[in-house]
Specification:
There is one protein chain. By secondary structure, this protein is an alpha/beta fold. It is built from 21 helices and 9 strands.
């Protein structure tokens, strides 16, 4: 070992001569703040080179502080064991909690030093999933003056981790202004601000937000997290297990079968709501109603309606909520498709699945759900949008594309909850039955022409 001051070989980190004239507390803080590899202090660089990990140089302050009185000794030792001066490693946290409780309110510590300890405690508590204790400290520090930048970064990280991005951004904005002339502090705060901004953007885009994922007691940690979020007014749910591991390969799954002859009057009309319109989006609601002998059966035993937890944990985008009224928070509480689809297919039985634009849209989602839940859907589909094209002239349709809403309005069929699955399923059934009342039925000789028309719709 070399003396930290003169560099001569010594049994301890200070030779007797240097110890007699050195401010131990200041030396400890200098050691803790030193950046190995900076080249500022050649003696310290040579000591760092002899260590297994140069970053452990700061730990020398732990032994060096032995000559300091309490609580300065404990304060220095806490800082010497922190990672980058901000957080205590897991294996030292229990010791830290005991030290923190014993010295936090000691009058020998300055307010700045107390805030520094508070910031470390905040980080330790939330990393140990003790959110209520972390919240109390975060609120006190957020209201305090002259909080050190390390503590500010822990406040921001805690608020970001608990999905309060606006609070984190506000705390960081204030600190960046206060530490504008401190290059080191500004670098820390900018890095923290970038992290918060990136996670905020991901949350706004509907991507999966933070959830605890410890190696041990993960379910307990996650439940504590969800419970804490609920206590501060943030609704969150645990993700459902992924279904990808059991999916049927795409090339082994039968393509949807469409029938075009409307020579039936018993069927199941259905509709889906989804997280979006691409092949990677997911079902969030299934609605259906049974029609028997041309009569829409609107009692509970003949209807099916259920929200679905999205596959791959997809988020419900704001535009989908605006269209359907279905929120992301609602579907987080729903059952996954591997539980809902079997119930739905039992409801359908062997009946025809009748939908609107179902061959281009709904059947694709049904196929994907079937693949991922190992259910082969063999029921034929009947697309009312295709069927309606035979009546374009009679209905006075000039547009090459018509929606379910426009068509139902032409036929004086009311849909009080458009873009909700059950309401749209009922409307689709009524539109189909109304079209069947027209005396000009689709002629088989027109099928090729109809297919051509539909490609343009």
């Amino acid at each position: 070992m070399k003396c930290l001051i003169c560099g001569i070989d010594n049994n301890t980190c200070l030779c007797e001569s240097c110890r007699a004239v050195t401010d131990i507390e200041k030396l400890c803080m200098d050691v803790i703040g030193y950046v190995p590899g900076s080249g500022v202090n050649p003696v310290w660089e040579s000591i760092c080179e002899e260590l297994e990990k140069p970053c452990h140089f700061r730990n020398i302050a732990f032994a060096l502080s032995a000559d300091l009185p309490s609580p300065k000794r404990e304060y220095i030792r806490v800082l010497s064991l922190t990672v980058y001066g901000a957080n205590i490693q897991k294996n030292s946290r229990q010791w830290f909690y005991e030290v923190y409780a014993s010295v936090r309110n000691d009058p020998m510590l300055s307010l700045l030093e107390k805030h520094r300890l508070d910031g470390i405690a905040l980080g330790a508590y939330y990393m140990d999933y003790e959110y209520e204790a972390a919240e109390k400290i975060a609120q006190e520090l957020s209201a305090a003056q002259d909080v050190p930048y390390q503590a500010v970064c822990n406040i921001a990280e805690f608020y970001t981790t608990t999905r309060r991005y606006d609070l984190a951004e506000r705390v960081l904005r204030d600190a960046l202004s206060r530490f504008a002339d401190d290059e080191t502090a500004s670098a820390w705060l900018i890095n923290s601000a970038n992290n918060t901004e990136n996670r905020h953007k991901k949350a706004a885009a509907g991507k999966q937000e933070y959830l605890p994922s410890p190696n041990e007691n993960r379910d307990e940690a996650r439940q504590k997290y969800i419970t804490f979020l609920a206590s501060i007014g943030i609704e969150a749910t645990l993700p459902k297990p992924s279904l990808k591991a059991t999916k049927i390969p795409k090339d082994q799954y039968p393509a949807p079968v469409e029938i075009r002859e409307a020579d039936f009057d018993s069927f199941v009309a259905f509709d889906l709501e989804t997280t979006g319109f691409s092949d990677i989006d997911s079902i969030i609601e299934i609605g259906a109603i049974r029609v028997v002998g041309g009569v829409v059966q609107e009692t509970a035993e003949f209807t099916f309606q259920e929200l679905v937890f999205p596959m791959d944990h997809k988020r419900v985008k704001p535009e989908i909520t605006a269209l359907t009224g279905i929120t992301d928070a609602e579907v987080r509480k729903a059952r996954p498709i591997n539980e809902v689809l079997p119930d739905f297919m039992r409801f359908v039985g062997g009946d025809i699945l009748l939908g609107f634009n179902c061959m281009s849209f709904d059947s694709r989602f049904m196929t994907r759900a079937g693949r991922y839940t190992n259910i082969i859907i063999t029921n034929p589909y009947f697309d009312v949008m295709h069927y309606a094209s035979a009546f374009k002239d009679k209905l006075g349709l000039s547009s090459k594309k018509v929606s379910l809403g426009e068509l139902s309005q032409m036929l004086d069929i009311e849909n009080p909850r458009a873009h909700r699955a059950l309401a749209d399923a009922v409307t689709t059934a009524r539109v189909f039955l109304k079209l069947k009342e027209y005396d000009i039925a689709p002629e088989s000789v027109l099928v090729d022409d109809l297919l051509s028309d539909l490609d343009e719709w």
